[in-house]
Structures
1.
Amino acid sequence: MPEVISHTTIRPDSLELGTPGRAGGALKIYFDSGDPVDSERRIREAFRLREIAQQLAERAVA
């Protein structure tokens, strides 16, 4: 019997904000639009982590 391989994407949707080459860079967030509560949590957390990364990068340059 042939082997069946199945692939499921847990977070099929994505949102990309910003431009990679500009100050602040790009932020890409993967989420499931069918779960708006989790999607909003992921978006807020991504922005929080981006802020931390920016602060660390500024300290490294200074």
2.
Amino acid sequence: MVNKEKKYELITKYSYDPNAYALLQNDMNYFVEQNGFIGYRELKNNPVVLDDPIVASENLESLVRSFYSKEPNAIYVNISQEFASKLYGYDLGYRFCPYGTENVLDLDPALLDGKKVKSALKKAKKATLSIEEVDFDDLDQQRLDLMKTINMEFLENTPSKKEITFISRAVEFRNQPGVRFFALKHVDKGEEKCFGFIVLDPFFKNGQKVGYQLNAIRFRRTKIWGVYYSIVGILVEKLMKENYKKLSLGGLALDMFETPSPFPHDSKMVNRIISLGKKADNYYVVSNFTDMKLEFAGERIRRYIAIPEKESVSRSIFRFLRVSGIL
């Protein structure tokens, strides 16, 4: 049995994906072997694997084949093109489909040159918008309750009315290894007030922390225009000063831009996933965030779903949506 601290250690050592920290969220199952692991959730004993396996590259195939011998009906979601290519090469009978991307920024002052970003930063300065890092060990109960209330209010204003997890890690109001939590503040009628928060999850490459993924940004309704743009701009400036290289803005569901692929896509599967994804978007809106994230020019990392050939696409996507809490 590998505890959470050991899994975090393996993530820092072997992961290369900005979303890898999501594997440490609650309600996950793990297949552990080869000094590595595969993270998944189950629906009626059918596994839905999240992200790429965490293991040394030389042990990847052995880990995947061992998991396949135990769980041949498992589907993989949110996997990178790098791992999807290897899974295809293992010839285990999977079909593949792109279903979205993740926008990863190379931190550079040029990211702040966009018209909307410049305008938002100007308005943020006028509203004295700022971020303040939070240490939960030093947070009094009143401020903690305020953060939780803001979170509940935010969720109440979403179509789902609840926290959506799995692809994105749920917000937790406590200190966690590597995670950074910031309060969003501005001055209103001469008084500094907290009106939201952001959560940054660390990500690694070659054993080094290269930056963060913006896992959550939540705030109360405000008259300040362009809060998302200004907060990302403020983070870009802050992380550059701290000598980090990357900031991921998270997933862009249904971003189906064309890109060369080293393996074939199932065209029927692509069309079915787009159709199902649009229906899910009515329940848990992601398209607006996609538009805002694309305002920042970054590397759009292609994400894939892999489904066993004998499995129904609709049933597999239903499993994915159920374990995520979308349906």
